[in-house]
Every structure is written in structure tokens, then in C-alpha cells.
Specification:
By secondary structure, the protein is α+β, with helices and mostly antiparallel strands. The chain contains 4 helices and 13 strands. A 4-stranded antiparallel β-sheet has the order 3-2-5-6, with no helix packed on it. The radius of gyration is 28 Å and the shape is globular. InterPro entries: Bact_OuterMem_StrucFunc (IPR050330), OMP_bac (IPR006664), OmpA-like (IPR006665), OmpA-like_sf (IPR036737). Keywords: Cell outer membrane, Membrane.
């Protein structure tokens, strides 16, 4: 009798498993959800939509990439997988890079639509623009960090417009003497110019200018007590696009 009960129990478990198997399979398939991202690029100055922006979408989980271009209405649409993080950024000739945005597809309701808006800024002549992530060691001309994207951007500008020139401007904070900071900033600007030439930019189209502490962005002038963070705002490198 005991063997019969065991046999009956085993058959019952098998029956329940077979009944529930499609449900497990269905739940598994539901986990492979897809999500639609709709984005639009807006001109920072005019508020108009920007056509022809190259959009790069990076899956940080497996490093796969999706590349596309915005249509005439400045928009794009893409389907993304779930359980991943994506980094999205746009670029266009004669424009600064848009701010990067992240999209997480964890714990989202199936068939969720994600709407994004990006601002992108056109580069104007005789206007200083920050070279982000170009950093120097303290009190030294040695470059500690650069941003390859902006090196490529400057090279593309001069490749497409060989009659244009680029000013590289370096600024220090107010710590140290005025003369010392002016000399240090000139050395740093020269080092950036050397780097750009090494990367293929024409030397005759690049002017390196050391500004020192003449153009501070805040109140941290000589003899004014400021935090290191406040001083750091003034330490920066910029580029200016000029014409002959």
C-alpha cells in the first residue's frame, strides 16, 4: 500500500508539473520585455528641433552599440531590451555634444514607452566653450586627463573648414602670484596644442593662449578665502573657433 501511495504521489507531482510548465514558460517569456525609447533633439539657442544628429546608444551591460540619425523632426525611435542600462548621447558637426542620458530597463512595466529630450548647442564663432575633462596636475603643465571626443570634434571642424582656426585658452585659479599663474597657464595651453598636433590637427590653425587668473568665474580673487571646490571652478581649458 505504501508503494502504491508513493507511486500515486509521484504521478500527481508529474501531472502538476506538466500543467504548470506552460505557465512557467510564459512567465519566462514575459521577462524578455522590450521597451520603446522616443527621443528628440532641440537646439539650445532657438528651441527648434535638430535634424541629422548622430545618436549613439551604448548598452553598458554587454557593450553593444546602436547608431542612428534623427529625422527631419529631430526625433528618433529605438527598441531596447530589458534588464540593462543604456547611455544615450548625440553629436553633430559644428555642435557641442549633448549631455549624456541614462536609461534603466529594470523593473519597468511591460510595453513602457520612454520619452527623452536632449538639448544640443551649435558652436558659434568667437565664443569660448569648455573642454571638459582636460585636467592638469597641480602646479604642473603635465596633462593628467583629456577627453578624446573633443579632440575628435576639433579635428573634424578643421578637416571640414581648413580656413578656420582654434584658440586654446587655459585658465588658473587665483592661488599663487599673477605672473606665476600667467606663465603656468601658457605652458598648459602649449601642452594642449602639442597634443592636438600629435593627434593630426594642423599646427598653423591652432593658437595657444595662457589667460592665468584674469577671467575668474566667481569671486575667488586674490586675498579672498575660498574653498578648494570654489577655486576649482576657475581652473579650466576652453576652445574658441575663429575665422581669418
Amino acid at each position: 500500500m505504501s508503494c502504491f501511495r508513493n507511486l500515486l504521489g509521484n504521478h500527481l507531482l508529474l501531472f502538476i508539473f506538466l500543467i504548470l510548465l506552460p505557465s512557467f514558460a510564459l512567465n519566462a517569456s514575459n521577462r524578455a520585455n522590450k521597451f520603446i525609447v522616443k527621443g528628440v533633439f532641440i537646439d539650445k539657442d532657438t528651441g527648434k528641433r535638430v535634424q541629422g544628429v548622430s545618436v549613439l546608444i551604448l548598452n553598458t551591460k554587454d557593450q553593444s552599440k546602436i547608431s542612428l540619425v534623427t529625422g527631419k523632426n529631430g526625433d528618433f525611435k529605438v527598441t531596447l531590451n530589458d534588464l540593462a542600462e543604456y547611455k544615450i548621447q548625440g553629436s553633430k558637426p559644428m555642435h557641442l555634444f549633448s549631455l549624456e542620458k541614462s536609461v534603466l530597463t529594470y523593473d519597468l512595466t511591460p510595453n513602457t514607452n520612454i520619452d527623452l529630450e536632449f538639448k544640443i548647442e551649435r558652436i558659434h564663432f568667437n565664443t569660448p566653450y569648455l573642454l571638459p575633462n582636460f585636467k592638469f596636475h597641480l602646479n604642473d603643465k603635465e596633462i593628467a586627463n583629456t577627453d578624446a571626443r573633443y579632440i575628435t570634434l576639433l579635428k573634424e571642424i578643421l578637416d571640414d573648414h581648413p580656413d578656420m582656426s582654434i584658440e586654446i585658452r587655459n585658465h588658473t585659479d587665483s592661488r599663487g602670484s599673477d605672473d606665476y599663474n600667467l606663465t603656468l597657464s601658457q605652458k598648459r595651453a602649449d601642452e594642449i596644442k602639442k597634443l592636438l598636433i600629435k593627434k593630426g590637427l594642423p599646427a598653423q590653425n591652432i593658437l595657444a593662449l595662457g589667460i592665468g587668473e584674469k577671467e575668474l568665474l566667481n569671486e575667488c580673487e586674490n586675498n579672498i578665502k575660498c574653498s578648494s571646490t570654489a577655486h576649482l571652478i576657475n581652473r579650466r581649458s576652453e576652445f574658441v573657433l575663429t575665422t581669418p
